[in-house]
Amino acid sequence: MHGLELLNIDLKGLTTDALEFSQSLDDEYFRSLDGAEIKHGQVEAHVSLNKAAGGDFALTLSIDGTVTVTCDLCLDDMDQHVEGEASFVVKLGTESSEDDQLIVVDENQGILSLGWIIYETIALAIPIKHVHAPGKCNAAMTEKLKELSPKGATEEEESATRSGDGAEDAIDPRWQKLKDLKP
């Protein structure tokens, strides 16, 4: 197990009111998390934990690095830069919390496990749409997509429709029949 134990903090055993450390996370880290969709990456995680009034803790996670995701267009793997920051309040207790910003750690154990929390921070930093830079997608897949796209309009007709010239000529006949139904 890739040092997931290095990402555990014994809250009861802290001797200072502040704790800061950085951890490099690599492919082994991502594979060690059961059920994780991201399997490859190189991310630097910085953890800052400060004891607040009332026995609570303020936790700040900062991540910066690259993960491998699937391109939405060609389905090949691609490297995606991720960076982000998340803040949480950590409490010792027995009840669970529905608040996304509140982490309740079992007071009997007192161990804060950051492995999955850091993973979720990384996953949330990945943009919704991830596509290779223009010209970098798998050429065979791109060609197949062009081949299978609707044949209703040629490039000239699409360009005329966008510019407003000859828009009536560029209407797909199926849509024209629907247009004729209007009173």
What is the straight-line distance between the termini? 69 Å
Mean pLDDT: 84
Biggest pleated-sheet summary: 5 strands, mixed
Question: Strand pairing plus helix content: what structural class?
Answer: alpha+beta
Largest beta sheet: what is the strand line-up? 2-3-4-5-6
Which labels suit this protein?
single chain, 183 residues, alpha+beta
SSE inventory with pairings:
Blueprint: E1 8-10, E2 18-25, H1 27-32, E3 41-51, E4 57-70, E5 77-93, E6 102-106, E7 111-113, H2 115-125, H3 139-148, H4 155-163, H5 173-180
Parallel strand pairs: 5-6
Antiparallel strand pairs: 1-7, 2-3, 3-4, 4-5
Fold and architecture overview:
With 183 residues, this protein is an alpha+beta fold. The protein is 24% helix and 33% strand. It has five helices and seven strands, in the order E-E-H-E-E-E-E-E-H-H-H-H. It has helices spanning 27-32, 115-125, 139-148, 155-163, 173-180; strands at 8-10, 18-25, 41-51, 57-70, 77-93, 102-106, 111-113. Strands 2-3-4-5-6 form a five-stranded mixed sheet. A two-stranded antiparallel ribbon has the order 1-7. A hairpin with a 5-residue loop joins strand 3 and strand 4. The protein is elongated and about 75 Å long. The relative contact order is 0.15. Mean pLDDT is 84; it is low at 152-167.
